[in-house]
Amino acid sequence: MRILLWLLPLVLSACVVGVRPEPTPTPPVRPAPQPSGFVINARLGLPAYPGSAALKREERGGSSEVDFETRDPLDQVYAFFHNWLVGRGWVRTRLEYKGPATRLEAVYQRGTERFTLELDQQGRSGRYRLEIDF
User: Fold this and answer.
1) How many domains is the chain partitioned into structurally?
2) How far apart are CA 83 and CA 108, in angstroms?
3) Is residue 79 part of a domain?
4) For burial by CB atoms within 10 Å, which of 21, 24, 29, 45 has the most?
5) What value does the mean pLDDT take over residues 27-38?
6) Domain, as residue range, for 59
């Protein structure tokens, strides 16, 4: 019996299976959020959407096109830009949703200046395209 008690720890230690922890998945590389001084449209001074990451920006003759990423819904993203513009004296004269409510077009005016804002949510990817056309 003593021999069995002495062999028990040896037998149990031989039964221990080496367990390796599973590797932690690496998150996908996402573009870094833009600094607070980043503007979407220089003519307007329109700032980037808070917490968004700009992917591409082009500007030509006062008009601009920007691709950016955020997980926020279309209405929330548009509300930010609309409120910013209204706060600077711009008046929306038209708003039209296009497609299955993933794209909208708005026209703004202040005095004799006028521009079109198009915001396009590209699927459910979190990517948006914002165009400002004077």
Assistant:
1) 1
2) 12
3) yes
4) 45
5) 56
6) 31-133
